From TrEMBL:
Keyword Zinc-finger: no
Transmembrane segments: 41-64, 76-93, 99-118, 130-151, 163-180, 187-202, 208-229
Keyword Transmembrane: yes
Higher taxonomy: Bacteria, Bacillati, Bacillota, Bacilli, Bacillales
Domain of life: Bacteria
Alphabetical keyword list: Membrane, Transmembrane, Transmembrane helix
Protein name, UniProt field: Transporter
């Protein structure tokens, strides 16, 4: 695999992601966002700006990569650009199709992250952009699933109402974030979940149980992170 070509593909895919997000993006929710109980406050999506910046830094850094770093870029291959293409496409296709593309982006990011963390060398600097990107894509996948269901007038799934599903997914997401932190020694991933969950609590203040569940999930995640961090520094 020609690493120079791969770097250029990374850049082109990044440009597509930006153009799709800022120029071509449509209203995926179709005006149903107010009815989605897993929807965070609008400010939460500003984290995309940080993610785009971190990805830009990574893309610049790849052109000055050392030998071991180039080997890692080659190992990642086309999984990373594919994730950006899928993510960008998710904001320009129809509401129902969007979930397929964002889920595809999530899968490719999981593969990319696994490749980075399974290297023997210290890949912390390489990992940071992908920790943010993967974490927020995880949340976005859940949010988009709720948006698609509500947009198609599905308020109950397997006999369980959206209200209950929102609480279940909040707790599952918190457990996933904690597990991810312990498994990968990655504090960024759960902190992004905390960011998203605080925004959900802010947005859902009128729905008491969802608000309390989001707040409790944030608290649990933070307490576990602090506890694990203290243990690792003893």
């Amino acid at each position: 695999m020609n690493v120079t070509v791969l770097k250029l593909v990374n850049v082109l895919s990044y440009i597509f992601l930006l153009v799709a997000s800022f120029v071509l993006a449509g209203d995926i929710g179709g005006g149903t966002e107010d009815d989605v109980l897993f929807m965070p406050a609008g400010y939460a999506f500003s984290i995309w700006g940080l993610i785009y910046l971190l990805l830009f830094v990574f893309l610049v850094k790849q052109f000055f990569a050392e030998k071991q770093e180039e080997a890692l870029i080659r190992k990642i291959g086309y999984w990373f650009p594919l994730s950006m293409i899928l993510s960008g496409t998710s904001v320009i296709v129809g509401m129902t199709n969007a979930i397929l593309f964002i889920a595809g982006s999530l899968v490719t990011l999981i593969i990319t992250y696994s490749i980075i963390t399974n290297r023997e060398q210290d890949t912390t600097l390489f990992r940071i952009p992908f920790s943010f990107y993967l974490a927020w894509t995880s949340i976005a996948t859940i949010v988009d699933t709720f948006v698609v269901l509500v947009g198609n007038d599905v308020t109950s799934l397997f006999g369980i109402h959206q209200f209950v599903w929102a609480i279940i997914m909040l707790l599952i997401g918190a457990l996933l974030a904690v597990w991810f932190h312990i498994r990968n020694n990655d504090s960024i991933y759960p902190l992004v979940f905390v960011w998203g969950y605080v925004a959900i609590a802010v947005e859902q203040t009128q729905t008491a149980l969802v608000f309390l569940s989001a707040s409790l999930a944030c608290l649990i995640a933070l307490l576990v992170i602090v506890r694990v961090f203290k243990r690792s520094n003893k």
